[in-house]
Amino acid sequence: MKDDKILYTIKDNVCLIKLTGMVQCSTISGFDSFVKMISKDKSIQDVIIDLCNLEYIDSTNLGLIAEIARFMVKEHNRKPAIVTTNAKITDLIENMGFNKIFIIIKGLEISGGEMREVPDIQQDEEEKAKMILEAHKAIMEISEKNKSLFKDVVELLEDQLDTPEE
Question: How far is CA 80 from CA 26, 74, 131, in A?
Fold first, then answer.
């Protein structure tokens, strides 16, 4: 059984998202579409992101999580929550400045009842590049440190997307 998953449930206007295993944009697709879907769902008033069973997350998926904070603050004027029990993941998200845009809850595991897997959605290369670009821009908005960390990645992606097809 594949343990690398993004699961979710929505109950009582709260969306619980659980990331497990190794979450990478090269192996798990569809999270960006899911983030866009919940950002348009006016019934969702709170978001909790459970990282307790997460072993690894790439920068693209961190950026998608940052986009969740962006829409929650914009639409509901509140920070979403991240729940974490893994010290390495906690250090990562704090070093990326997520404590500025999320409420971080350490050492508490939560149960969301029956959860569904975020469906895979295949994208062509240009759509995927645009998604990766937007995710990295979202991370860069968090801090000056992130701006310098991801500046080259963003510039490279922007150059690739501006190049006309021959």
Answer: 26, 11, 21
Secondary structure of the chain: what % helix, strand, coil (to 5)? 45, 20, 35
Which residues form the domain of 22?
5-121
What global pTM score does this model have?
0.89
Q: Is residue 115 part of a domain?
A: yes
DSSP 5-21: EEEEEEETTEEEEEEEE
| CATH of residue 56 | 3.30.750.24
- Of 153, 127, 159, give the one whose Cα is nearest residue 140: 153
Distance CA 151, CA 47 (A): 29
In a domain? residue 142: no
Strand pairing of 81-84 and 54-57?
A: unpaired
Residue 50 within any structural domain of the chain: yes
Q: What is the mean pLDDT of residues 100-127?
A: 85
